[in-house]
Design a protein that fits this description.
- This protein has about 70 residues and is α+β, with helices and mostly antiparallel strands.
- The chain has helices spanning about 15-20, 60-65, and strands spanning about 25-30, 35, 50-55.
- It is built from 2 helices and 3 strands; from the N terminus they run αβββα.
- β1 (about 25-30) and β2 (about 35) form a beta hairpin.
Length: about 70
């Protein structure tokens, strides 16, 4: 769940690639306001989105941190 503290809030996905060039993560789906969609590179995450991400498992902490989660 995307919260206010998300460092990637409202940044287009093609810009996120530049911000995190070493992060191997792909957002494959977003659930927003009870609607699911496959994002385009010009989309961005919004507060309260639920995102589905395929990642390199060795980068779990970095990926969580990029989206505002430090658990």
């Amino acid at each position: 769940l995307i919260r206010d503290n998300c460092k990637s809030l409202n940044i287009k996905f093609n810009e996120l690639t530049k911000k995190y060039p070493k992060l191997e993560a792909n957002i494959i789906g977003i659930n927003r306001e009870d609607k699911f969609f496959i994002p385009k590179k010009t989309d961005s995450v919004k507060k309260d989105d639920k995102i589905y991400v395929v990642i390199n498992s060795s980068q779990m902490a970095e990926t969580l941190d990029a989206f505002g989660h430090n658990e």
